């Protein structure tokens, strides 16, 4: 069952509603709430057994990348039905003139200020709800993936960025053209560099890297 409910993150001072069903490490998230609840379980797992952390991370990421493939295929196959269930929220489709306005829309003014040095006006970011992501064109999806990568290079991976990447990649149609394939390969290289030199146990980066490796990038 797909859910378009609004959810918010503990670390940003927002409220996360209790899950409507039991959530464990095998759960494929069907909405933003479930993504956050499972992410918390993942973090607990990685900190519970330090010596075997990397092995656990590798096995987990490979399995979840396969689950992503099933989710993305289901999303594409049911797109018309889902659009009937979750109509476009026109309020979210106001014109955004540049990557700064997109940053504030997706991530909120706090992270936007961290990335671009703008004022933190207290504006909250948006979550990748079906009433939004199902209506982006492929050009918009590719543009947003590139923007999020630019933000990652500046400040590292934030949970909201990971959520948006997961959703955008699920909506990205394959095969992509040669130019965007190169973009995905460059993202993969930067993620590997981050894991090697910055934080080898960054579960969010490892997760998206595994999705790219298993579903989009040549290997």
TrEMBL record:
Alphabetical list of InterPro entries matching this protein: Gemin2/Brr1
Pfam families: SIP1
GO aspect biological process, one term: spliceosomal snRNP assembly
Descriptive protein name: Gem-associated protein 2
């Amino acid at each position: 069952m797909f859910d378009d409910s609004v959810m918010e993150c503990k670390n940003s001072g927002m409220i996360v509603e209790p899950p409507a069903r039991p959530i464990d490490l095998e759960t494929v998230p069907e909405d933003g709430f479930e993504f956050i609840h499972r992410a918390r379980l993942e973090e607990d797992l990685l900190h519970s057994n330090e010596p075997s952390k990397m092995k656990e991370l590798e096995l987990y990421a490979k399995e979840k990348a396969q689950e992503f493939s099933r989710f993305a295929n289901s999303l594409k196959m049911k797109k018309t039905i889902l659009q009937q269930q979750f109509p476009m929220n026109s309020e979210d489709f106001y014109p955004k003139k540049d990557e700064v306005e997109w940053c504030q829309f997706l991530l909120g003014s706090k992270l936007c200020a961290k990335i671009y040095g703008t004022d933190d006006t207290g504006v909250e970011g948006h979550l990748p709800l079906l009433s939004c992501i199902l209506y982006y064109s492929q050009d918009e999806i590719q543009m947003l993936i590139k923007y999020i990568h630019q933000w990652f290079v500046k400040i590292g991976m934030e949970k909201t960025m990971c959520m948006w990447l997961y959703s955008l990649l699920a909506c990205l149609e394959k095969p992509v053209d040669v130019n965007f394939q190169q973009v995905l390969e460059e993202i993969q290289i930067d993620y590997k560099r981050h894991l090697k030199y910055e934080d080898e146990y960054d579960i969010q980066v490892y997760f998206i890297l595994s999705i790219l490796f298993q579903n989009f990038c040549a290997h």
